[in-house]
Amino acid sequence: MEYRQISTLSHVVMWLLLSHTCYGTESDVMCLRKIKKSLKDPIGYLASSWNFSNIVEGSICTFSGVECWHPDENKVLNLRLSNMGLEGQFPSGLENCTSMTGLDLSNNNLSGLIPADICTRRIHYVTTLDLSSNHFSGGIPLDMGNCSYLNALSLQHNQLNGSIPQTLSQLSRLRSLNVAYNSLTGLIPILNPNISANFTNNRVRYMQLIFWSNSFPLIWPLFVSKQFHASLRRKSVFCGVVSSYFD
Ligand SMILES: *[C@@H]1O[C@H](CO)[C@@H](O)[C@H](O)[C@H]1NC(C)=O
Ligand SMILES: *[C@@H]1O[C@H](CO)[C@@H](O)[C@H](O)[C@H]1NC(C)=O
Ligand SMILES: *[C@@H]1O[C@H](CO)[C@@H](O)[C@H](O)[C@H]1NC(C)=O
Ligand SMILES: *[C@@H]1O[C@H](CO)[C@@H](O)[C@H](O)[C@H]1NC(C)=O
Ligand SMILES: *[C@@H]1O[C@H](CO)[C@@H](O)[C@H](O)[C@H]1NC(C)=O
Ligand SMILES: *[C@@H]1O[C@H](CO)[C@@H](O)[C@H](O)[C@H]1NC(C)=O
Ligand SMILES: *[C@@H]1O[C@H](CO)[C@@H](O)[C@H](O)[C@H]1NC(C)=O
Q1: Interatomic CA distance for residues 102 and 154, integer angstroms
Q2: Model pTM score
Q3: Rounded CA gap, 235 and 247, in Å?
Q4: Across 27-116, where does the E strand assignment appear?
Q5: Which of 61, 59, 68 is nearest to 22 (CA)?
Q6: Are 98 and 76 in contact (CB under 8 A)?
Q7: Which Gene3D superfamilies did the record assign (predicted)?
Q8: Structural domain boundaries of the chain?
């Protein structure tokens, strides 16, 4: 109890000191500092534009790729870092951009794994996530199903392998999913029928649909074909209908 009070008091004192002397400790500023530090920036976009030497409210809103909720407040709305030649792993620090709704890291040279805690710990509130055209490898994390606000997920043109996690079916707001041009395998989970999904150039296949005839199940495996891509929307409605029939 006593420790707690002292600790709270020291936090308050620290907060007072920090908030009056140094805007740079503010959460979203911290977020961008950490991101800049964790990425390699061979072309120098971030080096030239993300200058933390004289931060006041609204400073970060002029950084390239940073969109704020209000131009005079250091609160990141979207981060659009597409096509900047960035290298390294998925950036750290994003958990401090607590109001961020969109993250676009597409068309860079990022590699390594998509973090296993991407949604619960890092970018929980994003509605759009674009990691396409990088060199991300390994699996799509199960935790992707915890980004419950996600509308659009773009993972195409990476080196992702393993199967598409069933947890994606928890994403009730998801309207578009693109995982084309990866090395994914296994069954495609049953997703919201209205979703526009693109599985081109993987080795995935649809759920086996089971039809009952005279009480004998006929198992009808559907493999992804070119023709199938063209009519994906219609087919996934079909899958949904069949699955709800068995619910
Ligand atoms: C940044 O996020 C971490 C982890 O959530 C937290 O402990 C830390 O206090 C945050 N920093 C700021 C300046 O908000
Ligand atoms: C950052 O801005 C300060 C002035 O606020 C300037 O002196 C410094 O050269 C800038 N740094 C870079 C890398 O542009
Ligand atoms: C990505 O990085 C590799 C070296 O790691 C380099 O050879 C390649 O040219 C880079 N590609 C792009 C598009 O920047
Ligand atoms: C993340 O989702 C899984 C189910 O996929 C669930 O068991 C877990 O509790 C969720 N974690 C959080 C922190 O919401
Ligand atoms: C995915 O690829 C990595 C190498 O990048 C490999 O170690 C791992 O076993 C692969 N996983 C699956 C499920 O194929
Ligand atoms: C699909 O969209 C239609 C209207 O476009 C809507 O009525 C229906 O509830 C949606 N279904 C799901 C599962 O979201
Ligand atoms: C699927 O995605 C790939 C890669 O983004 C794209 O080239 C292709 O046109 C898409 N296919 C459909 C049917 O949208």
Answers
A1: 12
A2: 0.80
A3: 19
A4: 66-68, 76-80, 87-88, 102-104, 109-113
A5: 59
A6: no
A7: Ribonuclease Inhibitor (3.80.10.10)
A8: 27-205
Residue 65: Cβ-neighbour burial (10 angstroms; 0-12, 13-18, 19+): buried
Contact 222, 189 (CB under 8 A): no
Q: Ligand 3 centroid vs 227 CA: distance in angstroms?
A: 35
Mind listing the pLDDT tens digit for each residue in 140-190? 999 999 999 999 999 999 999 999 999 999 999 999 999 999 999 999 998
Residue 169, phi then psi, degrees to nearest 5: -70, -10
3-state helix vs strand vs coil in the chain, percent to 5: 35, 25, 40
* CATH code linked to domain 27-205: 3.80.10.10
For residue 97, how far is its CA from the centre of ligand 1 (angstroms)?
9
Backbone angles phi, psi at 69, to 5 degrees: -65, -45
Residue nearest to atom 6 of ligand 5 (CA): 138
pLDDT digits (tens, 9 = 90+) for 13-24: 444 444 443 444
Question: Relative to the alpha carbon of 147, which ligand is closest?
Answer: 4
